[in-house]
Design a protein that fits this description.
The strands form two sheets. Strands 1, 4, 5, 6, 7, 8, 9, 10, 11 and 12 form a ten-stranded mixed β-sheet that branches. A two-stranded antiparallel sheet has the order 2-3. The protein contains twelve helices and twelve strands. The protein is 37% helix and 14% strand.
Length: 394
C-alpha cells in the first residue's frame, strides 16, 4: 500500500470510528496569562534566550503591567563568552554550541545585567539581515573556540579572549556599557537591578527516577552546559506545579523535546500513540513508521481532535529519556490552558519562530505531550505549590 493511500485509509478509519465527530480541533481558552509579543529567533539556535527573555518580560508584565522588550542578543553574546571560557578550561571536553538553557539567561543577568532591545544592534543587522542569522557567525566562532580549546599550546595568553570578543562584536554588535532608557542613564547591571530580576527568585524543576525525588541534580542534557541543578519531583507534582502556577497568574518557562512525531510546524503538539506501531506487523498502523515526518504531520492534522494519545507515566517518561527518544532541543513559554471539543486539555505555548503556523506563533501542546517530553520547567519560586515547596525546602 502506498504511503498516501495509507494516510487516506487511516483518515477513513477515524471517521468511521467517530461517526459524526469533527476531526478539526476547536480550542476553547480556559485561562490565559499576559505575555509580550511573539518574536523570531530566525536562523539562530537561541530559543533558550528568546523563551527565557519572553518569560522575564511576562514576569515584569505580571508585576508592573508594563511591556518591556529586552535584548536576547545581549544575553547570547555574554553567554557565549562564558561558554567558551568553560570549554577552554575543559580542554574541549564539553559542549560549545548555539544552544543553552533558562539557567544561562539568569546567570548572565546576575553577572552582567541586561539591556533593552534598542540599546544594542538589532538581530541580524550586522550582516545586513533583518533577523538573527548565525549561519556564517557560528561557522566562524565555533572553529575559533575549538582551535584554542584543543590546540597545541602549553600555555595560553589572554589574547584569545580578545579575538573571541571581536567575533562576537562583529556579528552581534557590541554590548553597551551604558545606555539611556526613558530619559535615564543606566548600565546593564543597574538596569537589571531596577527591573528587580534575580536568579534567587527562580527555580528549575524536573521529574526523573534515576535520581532521588526532592533532591537536586544536574540534568544530563548536552545543551545544559552550566552545571546548574534542578529539583526532582514526581511527574504528578511537576504537572500540578505547572497548572497551579498558571492559575495563580504566573507563566512557566519550558525546556524539552519538540522532535516527536506529534509536534507539528503548524502549532500542535500531541503525544500521538504510535509507540507500539512496530509491534503491529502487517497492519496499517505498522506502516506509519514508513511515512516521512511531513506525511506523519499531515496525518495528525487530519486526525485532529481524535488523535489517540499515550498515557503518561513516570516509568514511560524515564524510559523515553534513557533511550534518547525524548531529548532536550527547544525552550518555549507556557502561559495558558485550553480545551478541545472533546475535553482534552492543552497548554498554550509561546514559540520563538515568528508568527508562523496556524495560530500566529502560538502552539497548543497537550498535557500528555508536556508530561512525556519535559526536560525541565523554570518558574518563580512563589508559583510552586506550597506542599511541593515544603518538600523541596525553599
Amino acid at each position: 500500500m502506498k504511503k498516501t493511500a495509507f494516510v487516506l485509509v487511516l483518515m477513513c478509519l477515524v471517521v468511521a470510528l467517530t461517526a459524526m465527530a469533527s476531526d478539526e480541533i476547536v480550542f476553547t481558552t480556559v485561562l490565559e496569562n499576559p505575555i509580550t509579543p511573539v518574536k523570531n529567533q530566525n536562523r539562530s539556535g537561541t530559543c533558550w534566550s528568546y523563551a527565557t527573555i519572553g518569560y522575564i518580560e511576562a514576569e515584569l508584565l505580571r508585576k508592573t503591567g508594563k511591556v518591556y522588550d529586552l535584548s536576547e542578543m545581549f544575553v547570547a553574546s555574554k553567554d557565549y563568552v562564558d561558554c567558551a571560557e568553560y570549554h577552554v578550561r575543559m580542554h574541549g571536553n564539553s559542549r560549545f554550541s548555539e544552544g543553552g538553557s533558562a539557567d544561562d539567561v539568569f546567570e548572565v543577568i546576575d553577572r552582567y545585567g541586561i539591556c533593552p532591545e534598542g540599546a544594542m544592534a538589532r538581530p541580524g543587522s550586522m550582516i545586513g539581515d533583518t533577523l538573527a542569522n548565525f549561519t556564517e557567525f557560528f561557522a566562524t566562532l565555533e572553529p575559533y573556540v575549538e582551535s584554542i580549546a584543543k590546540g597545541s599550546s602549553t600555555k595560553l595568553t589572554t589574547q584569545w579572549k580578545v579575538g573571541l570578543q571581536g567575533i562576537l562584536d562583529a556579528y552581534l554588535g557590541k554590548c553597551p556599557d551604558e545606555f539611556t532608557y526613558e530619559g535615564k542613564l543606566y548600565t546593564p547591571q543597574s538596569f537589571a537591578k531596577a527591573l528587580g530580576i534575580s536568579k534567587k527568585q527562580y527555580v528549575s524543576i524536573t521529574s526523573f527516577t534515576h535520581h532521588p525525588f526532592y533532591e537536586q541534580f544536574v540534568i544530563e542534557a548536552p545543551y545544559k552546559w552550566r552545571p546548574r541543578p534542578s529539583w526532582n519531583v514526581t511527574l504528578d507534582e511537576m504537572m500540578a506545579t505547572i497548572d497551579e502556577a498558571l492559575k495563580q497568574g504566573y507563566t512557566v518557562c519550558w525546556g524539552g523535546d519538540v522532535s516527536e512525531d506529534g509536534f507539528t510546524r503548524t502549532g500542535l503538539g500531541i503525544a500521538a500513540d504510535i509507540e507500539h506501531a512496530d509491534d503491529l506487523t502487517g497492519s496499517d498502523a505498522a506502516r506509519w513508521l514508513k511515512l516521512t515526518k511531513q506525511e506523519k504531520a499531515e496525518a495528525l492534522k487530519q486526525f485532529g481532535a481524535m488523535t489517540p494519545e499515550l498515557v503518561p507515566t513516570q516509568e514511560l517518561r524515564q524510559q523515553r529519556f534513557d533511550n534518547w527518544q525524548s531529548t532536550y532541543d527547544h525552550v518555549m513559554l507556557i502561559y495558558g490552558i485550553a480545551k478541545d471539543q472533546n475535553g482534552r486539555e492543552y497548554y498554550m505555548v509561546k514559540n520563538s519562530w515568528g508568527k508562523t503556523g496556524q495560530y500566529a506563533g502560538i502552539w497548543y501542546m497537550s498535557k500528555a505531550y508536556i508530561a512525556l517530553n519535559t526536560t525541565y520547567i523554570f518558574l518563580n519560586k512563589e508559583a510552586v505549590k506550597k506542599d511541593v515547596r515544603k518538600k523541596l525546602r525553599f
